[in-house]
UniProtKB/TrEMBL annotation:
Residues 55-74 are annotated as: Disordered. Keywords: Signal. Residues 1-26 form the signal peptide. This is Carboxypeptidase regulatory-like domain-containing protein. It comes from Acidisarcina polymorpha.
Length: 82
C-alpha cells in the first residue's frame, strides 16, 4: 500500500526541518556568573558591590559590569560576553 503525502504536509515537514536547523545554530554565546561573597576566613559578606572584569582585555570600559550581593551574600552577573 502506497501512501501519498499532501503538498501541505510536505510544506509543514519542510518548515519543521528548517526550524530545527535554526534552533541548533541559535546557541547562546554569553555566560552567567553566580556566586557567594565571603572573606578569607569564610564569613559571608552581605551587600558587597562586585565588579566583573575580563583580565585579558585590560581595564574595564563603561558600562562596567557591577552587581551587589544580596543579604545572603549571593550575586549574579547575567549575560557576560567573552
Amino acid at each position: 500500500m502506497h501512501r501519498h503525502i499532501s503538498s501541505g504536509m510536505k510544506g509543514a515537514l519542510l518548515l519543521a526541518l528548517m526550524f530545527a536547523v535554526f534552533q541548533i545554530h541559535a546557541q547562546e554565546f554569553r555566560a552567567v556568573l553566580t556566586g557567594q561573597v565571603s572573606d578569607p576566613s569564610g564569613a559571608l559578606i552581605q551587600n558587597a558591590t562586585i565588579a566583573a572584569v575580563n583580565v585579558n582585555r585590560g581595564p574595564p570600559t563603561p558600562p562596567n559590569r557591577a552587581a551587589k550581593a544580596t543579604t545572603t551574600s549571593r550575586t549574579c552577573f547575567p549575560a557576560l560576553t567573552p
